[in-house]
Amino acid sequence: MTGYKVANGNGHSNGNGNTKGTNGTNGHSNGHKSADYTAQENPTYPYEVIEEIADFITKGSGMRPKIGIICGSGLGSLADMIQDPKIFEYEKIPNFPVSTVEGHAGRLVVGTLEGATVMAMQGRFHFYEGYPLAKCSMPVRVMKLCGVEYLFATNAAGGINPRFAVGDIMLMHDHVNMLGFAGNSPLQGPNDPRFGPRFPALVNSYNKDLINKAIEIAKAMGIESNIHVGVYSCLGGPNYETIAELKALRMMGVDAVGMSTVHEVITARHCDMKVFAFSLITNKCATEYSDKKDDEANHDEVMAVAKNRQKACCELVSRLIREIHLASA
Ligand SMILES: O=P(O)(O)O[C@@H]1C[C@H](O)[C@@H](CO)O1
Fold it and tell me: Is residue 156 marked as binding?
């Protein structure tokens, strides 16, 4: 060692270095039996707690939604398409975390879209907000117990594949779980078989029929040149990646990088939901060193691109939901 002092520990008392001080749940008692339950004590939400949240939503909305949508950064307008919406602010849902990120409104919208019953998260939870992964993806289990069969997960991501342009859409057909490489999973802790098996397989996680339907829809919309099929990877964030990290991801076969979705997909597949997911490419990731300021990703740009492309994203999602609904009618 040359001149570096290496500390023995990181001095943090919690696992992810977050010092927000609370467990991030909304702290409402709402008269629920589980009012003294805190996710801090046990980040694996018991089945009964998820069931209570699901009951709160199905009773409050009078609906059992079939399709769940998670809106990525700047893509909250996906939920604005929902007709006769019943809106649940996260802070009013018992035992629900709160959204802390700009571009994630923090509400659950339940209603109909293209004839199908849907529930959409306008605001997701990210690991970098200080939430354990089980908590980030807890709403997926709530969706399952509400009756959801299909998860539509969307995100804003940086394009690593040099063929991708800003504004393109990458349909996810696989992922590389970098947080999993580091020993972190939303399924860590005791497994409740009512959700799924202890060791779920994740090959074919992204439904091929839905990918193919989405490609057909993109052709009909005249945007097929902006559509790709590729591999997404989630890093912990909140910092964007270094050039060396982006180079490494590219060598691993990653096409787009973000900070979400993977833990939601793992949780959805664990409880046997069909998954469709896409990344809106909001910035190009540099994989060579240069002095260009353009190479630096920033959240304002991410939000601006998402706003510009929301119409295409909304049309793709609504047409795909229409197909699912018609096929099941
Ligand atoms: O929620 P998503 O994955 O769409 O948000 C991305 C990742 C970070 O939260 C943020 C960075 O700009 O956008």
Answer: yes
